[in-house]
Amino acid sequence: MLPKEVLKKIRRIEITTSKLATDMLSGDYESVFKGRGIEFDEVREYQPGDEIRSIDWNVTARMGHPYIKKYVEERQLTVMILLDASGSSFFGSSKRLKSDLAAEISAVLAFAAIQNKDRVGLLIFTDRIEKFIPPRKGRPHVLRVIREALCFKPKGKGTDIEMALRFLNGVTTRRAVTFIISDFFAKDFKKSLSIANKRHDIIAVTITDPREISLPDVGLLELTDAETGGNYIIDTSNESIRNKYLSKSRETIESRRRLFNSVNVDHIDIFTNRPYVEEFIKFFQVRKKRI
């Protein structure tokens, strides 16, 4: 049984994100991700005017007269949310932690999916696979996805995106629109990202806190690496140190963008101190024009 405060939080997230998905995202979502090809529907008797290339010769031979294969457009999507729950996600210098923002974004995407009658699944990962919820449809299923995204307590601290992508390819039998929600503080995942993007439609959603870009002038500051446990003391009153930190952060962000572009992965940059809805709307509009 979940505590009352957790149930209230889930309900608040449901109300907020369901409205966002309805009012702002679902229309663009549908236009961007519709039309996934065709799939086999049934075999029926040949009728004058049917294309000869549609004839199912095996069934025709068994029945003694022509039958054709009928196909329909495949409308149902499989949406996978890969949620990074590593130690660095439990950081926040503004109103909320990166992990809370990531959970809320997961909820918006999940509601947008079910409102489009798509299936949605969740994979929570750190340096190991923490939780996998197979794709399904329906409100009860989405509420489970939200609950896990909000309340799951991971065992791992590190980040292994390559492992998460390998797991995704192993458990999905069909193409999936896949949102990876992470700060992407990981190494050596370019090859696995490229391979996964050939099979799936990968969208990288990066979560960044402003203090991961620049430091305030507050004197001596003790920092702890949430993933390795290492402790560091930085003299933030030193302008040269602050400038080096800013330069390194910008270099990391630019390197990440170049990586995504090099393997043709769309990406959305989200910051904990800025509204995220506008960034998603912008992404959907740009992608719709490209399509």
In short:
The protein has about 290 residues and is an alpha/beta fold. Helices cover about 45% and strands about 25% of the residues.
Number of strands: 10
Largest sheet: spatial strand order? 5-4-3-6-7-10
Task: Report the β-strand fraction as a percent range.
Answer: 15-25%
User: Could you spell the SSE succession in H and E letters?
Assistant: HEHEEHEEHHEHEEEHEH
Describe the largest sheet: 6 strands, mixed
The name CATH uses for the topology of the largest domain is: Rossmann fold
Just name the CATH architecture of the largest domain. 3-Layer(aba) Sandwich
Structural class based on helices, strands and sheet pairing: alpha/beta
Number of domains: 2
Q: Give the rounded overall mean pLDDT.
A: 87
Distance between the ends? 46 Å
Which spans have pLDDT < 50 for at least 5 consecutive residues? none
CATH superfamily of the largest domain: von Willebrand factor, type A domain
CATH class of the largest domain: Alpha Beta
Contiguous helical run count: 8
